[in-house]
Design goal:
The chain has 461 residues and is an all-alpha fold. It folds into two domains: 2-260, Serine Threonine Protein Phosphatase 5, Tetratricopeptide repeat (Alpha Horseshoe); 322-461, no CATH class. 81% of the residues lie in helices and 0% in strands. It is built from 21 helices and no strands. Helix 6 (130-140) runs antiparallel to helix 7.
Length: 461
């Protein structure tokens, strides 16, 4: 019996060590994902970078203070990537998540970065609060230790006061950072702002000098803004052509649809992981304690009944626990099915209202109502690209749980939008019989997973 106690104590110590060691391995995993994301971003593979950044976030426990700095940094990075990809609404959410962690740090450099990023989102969307958001960085200046971030903060304030018409304060902040020796990207951004300030004050020669400096930047966004400003200042069409070419390059890099799909897909996985981690952290020690008690009671009962119970055990004595396990597993399966169906219904309900107001859907209905047998190829492609972007979360659910192909996903979206067999055939440029076969295939796939009749009726076509 004494050996059993030693064995239980050893198990407890191992569990504690594994729990403590998990935090360090999580940080190493998060760092690896993050640096991999940076490489992808530098290669303009924004969708892959988004997944890596979310993986880094998902690898860390948000309840541990030691992870606050890393989480704040990771959220800032993915928020900026989403902003570059014109996914402003999600970028704003990520910056706000970053603020929640960065406010707890003594060094306010990351918090300043979050406020600057949030201000960009609000400013582009012309949303309320962008003025007060950027002005919060003024209070943080004495607590920013990183010179690079201090440079960027003052440059952002210079730009803010420039567009606000306060050229004196704009030049004040722009001049204050001349001695901070930033990296080349930040330096050329300051040249761009300073050139704009000089132009606003009527000093054209100085404005052109600084703006031409900004055009030397290796950062494409600074370059395109510099060429655009030089075209305005000089009227030289060569600058306009350069600006136009760079804008095409930026459009090719962004691919918001792909980033959106990757972002939402990974977000679902991370939500599941975060939920599992919270359950694990809350119950780890209680499970260990309970296990010790159960083992001790089990050992006592084992020796107690071994002496008193006959060796022959009837089949009926174990039949009841087996039946109870089967019932429990069935209930868990139905619970997951109910959750999936609820998510599908929620997504389609919300997204359908929005998508029916889109230009591409209205144009599709006009063609069909006009008697068109098939949609033109350009409109058909535009419709399906829009569906893939708008219903990215639904795409993730249907492909994950039901192994839907792209064709089956598109048809499911069309049906959920209220299009009948003939209309769906026109959108797909196929025959009516092909649509009927496709509908049966879709329903069969869902039926294999959704076994509860009332749930299947809610989502079948």
């Amino acid at each position: 019996m004494l050996r059993s106690y030693y064995f239980i104590l050893a198990c407890f110590l191992v569990a504690v060590l594994i729990s403590c060691g998990g935090g360090e391995s999580g940080r190493e995993e998060a760092s690896a994902h993050f640096h991999k994301g940076i490489v992808f971003e530098e290669e303009n593979k924004f969708d892959s970078a988004a997944v890596c950044y979310l993986s880094a976030i998902g690898s860390l426990n948000p309840g541990k203070a030691s992870n606050f700095e890393a989480l704040g940094s990771y959220y800032n990075r993915i928020a900026l990537l989403l902003f570059k990809s014109d996914i402003n609404e999600e970028a704003e959410k990520m910056f706000r998540e970053a603020i929640a962690f960065n406010t707890r740090l003594s060094d306010k450099g990351q918090l300043s970065e979050s406020y600057r990023g949030l201000w960009k989102c609000l400013y582009v969307d012309n949303a309320e609060g962008h003025d007060t958001t950027i002005l919060k960085t003024v209070e943080l200046i004495p607590y920013i230790r990183d010179k690079e971030e201090l440079y960027k903060t003052k440059n952002a304030l210079a730009y803010y006061y420039l567009i606000s018409g306060n050229y004196e304060l704009a030049m004040k902040y722009s001049a204050e950072i001349d001695s901070l020796f930033p990296d080349s990207v930040s330096y050329y951004k300051n040249c761009l702002v300073k050139g704009s300030i000089f132009y606003a004050e009527g000093h054209l020669d100085s404005a052109i000098v600084y703006t031409k400096k900004a055009a030397r930047s290796s950062y494409i966004y600074t370059q395109v803004s510099a060429y655009e400003n030089l075209y305005v200042m000089t009227g030289d069409s060569a600058y306009y052509d350069l600006c136009y070419t760079l804008n095409d390059s930026i459009s090719g890099m962004m691919k918001p649809g792909r980033v959106n799909s990757a972002f939402y897909g990974k977000l679902i996985n991370n939500m599941n992981r975060e939920y599992s981690r919270k359950i694990h952290d809350r119950t780890l020690f209680s499970i260990v304690g309970t296990a010790i008690i159960v083992v001790m009671i089990g050992a006592f009962l084992f020796f107690f009944f071994k002496r008193r119970v006959a060796p022959n055990t009837s089949a009926g004595s174990i039949e009841k626990p087996v039946r109870e396990q089967a019932v429990e597993m069935k209930e868990k399966g139905e619970s997951l099915q109910r959750k999936i169906v609820a998510q599908i219904k929620e997504i389609t309900t919300v997204k359908n209202k929005r998508f029916k107001k889109s230009a591409v859907f209205k144009q599709t209905i006009e063609y069909i109502d006009g008697g068109a047998v098939f949609l033109p190829g350009s409109l058909r492609n535009a419709l399906f690209e829009s569906l893939k972007t708008e219903y990215a979360l639904l795409y993730q659910l249907l492909t994950t749980y039901f192994s839907f192909s792209d064709e089956e996903f598109y048809f499911y979206c069309l049906s959920s939008l209220g299009l009948n067999t003939k209309e769906s055939a026109a959108c797909r440029s196929v025959s009516l019989s092909a649509i009927r076969v496709l509908r049966k295939r879709v329903n069969d796939k869902m039926r294999k997973y959704i076994t509860a009749e009332e749930l299947f009726d809610d989502i079948k076509l």
